[in-house]
Amino acid sequence: MSIELKSDDGSLPPNHIFDRWGKTLLEASEAYGKSLGTANQIKGLIETNGFVGVVENTFKWPIGRWGQGRKLRAIGRLNKMHWEISMEGWCIALLTRALKWTVPQVKEFLQEMEEALKDDNIHAYHEV
Predict the structure, then answer these.
(1) Crossing angle of helices 70-98/103-117, nearest 10°?
(2) Could you tell me the pTM of the whole model?
(3) How far is 47 from 124, CA to CA, in rounded Å?
(4) How far apart are CA 126 and CA 89, in angstroms?
(5) Using CA atoms, how far apart are residues 116 and 94, in angstroms rounded to an integer?
(6) How wide is the angle at C-alpha 68 spanned by C-alphas 65 and 74, nearest 5°?
(7) Which tens digit of pLDDT belongs to each residue from 24-34?
(8) What gap in Å lies between CA 32 and CA 106, rounded to an integer?
């Protein structure tokens, strides 16, 4: 699962909190020595270890109810809930330990993410 949020329709403006989220967590995870960027590298890593004929299937999971069709809207609704209840656990230790942020700084960052998740005009997804 990628932690970098994207949009194909231009609804995600440059330097949006979603963009900063991905860059910040990648930076922190690399500083901590446990990269969260492996989702984009997994096929190559598997092939490097001798596997052949590796097939990689990537899916775009919407965050929110904006997806086309009943199935993607259901995935998006559940995925948004997953992000809302999981973000703090994903980042509080990482940001305070690796980047030396204070807990109030992390809480402010999370609050900005929570507000952005409420914006139904942003059609963000992450790759799985």
Answers:
(1) 170
(2) 0.88
(3) 30
(4) 18
(5) 21
(6) 45
(7) 999 999 999 99
(8) 16
